Amino acid sequence: MTKTICLYEKEEYQYPCAGEFLPNIMAYLHDDGELRPAMLVVPGGGYVMVSPTEGEIVAKKFFEEGYQAFVLTYTTNMFQIMPLDKQPLKDISRAVRHIRSNAEELQVLSDRIACCGFSAGGHLVGSLAVHYGDFALAEEPCRDVSNRPDAVLLCYPVITSGEKADRESFEPLFGKDASEEQLAWASLENHVTAKTPPAFLWQTLTDELVPVENSVLYAKACRENGVPCELHLFMDGCHGMSLADEDWAKHNIGEGSLYTMLQQWQTMKTLYAQNPASIPEIFTKAAKAENLTDFVAAWFEAAAAYQQQKEQHADKSVMQWVRLAVAWLEKIWG
What we know:
Helix 2 packs across helix 4. The protein has twelve helices and eight strands. It has helices spanning 56-64, 87-101, 103-106, 120-131, 171-174, 180-186, 213-224, 246-249, 262-274, 284-287, 292-304, 321-333, and strands at residues 2-6, 24-28, 36-42, 68-73, 108-118, 151-155, 199-204, 229-234. The mean pLDDT is 94. Strand 3 (36-42), helix 1 and strand 4 (68-73) form a beta-alpha-beta unit. 33% of the residues lie in helices and 15% in strands. The protein is α/β, with parallel strands linked by helices. It has an eight-stranded mixed beta sheet, with helices on both faces.
């Protein structure tokens, strides 16, 4: 069973550049009456989009492993018109609280809710892991319900704003003139404490976008603070490998996975209607798309013009990360 769960009422959602979009979670649920652990999947996309290649296919894999699975479509800053600041953190915090407060209805074990984030989505998951008590999250609905994940999976994550930073991931959050205070807040390795949730991390040593030291720094911080942690570094592979299987390599993710791009479509349509000149010419075709499928095709066609397409290959070693993560979760949860 699948269903979409909106995390906000329209009048309470504050980010002004999102058009008709409301942050939401797509639920993939076993409907057999059995209480199961939950996995909230948080795709990457540099905080400018929510990548469909790290959403549904990952959720379905954990569903097959016996989890109630969810995919979070959180607020992004496509054209960097207005900094996101803590809006994505509010989105994921609400998602965890919603799942936990509705655990009986969703058939979830309320003390076994994990979050799995990729790249910038890994930064978002890591941000909740270290900042779940942030004052900005205190006025949410269900605020008396914990928003702390019981475990996190960080997949080729953005972690640090320091020497090994992927700096482009921080510009949508804070703008090009981010303060030292903002960057320090976002450098997650410096905020790990003994109360930080257990962490499973994996990355390839040849990641060309996010230096592998990001994962190492977080694992080191966990070790120093007594936080249960497991780190897997694979010999090679590009950034953004998702499941690293044949479906990922051939982009066989199905039209049903495109809902993570609905935000981009709605936002672009709104901006184009208000001021066509505000949309870069290369994205005009996407802005005029009449349905989501055509929009996604036009979007990736335009994006490909900015960068050389990487040839993707399945990797039998890297694709083991789900099996390793499930075994690790069974170990820490008993």
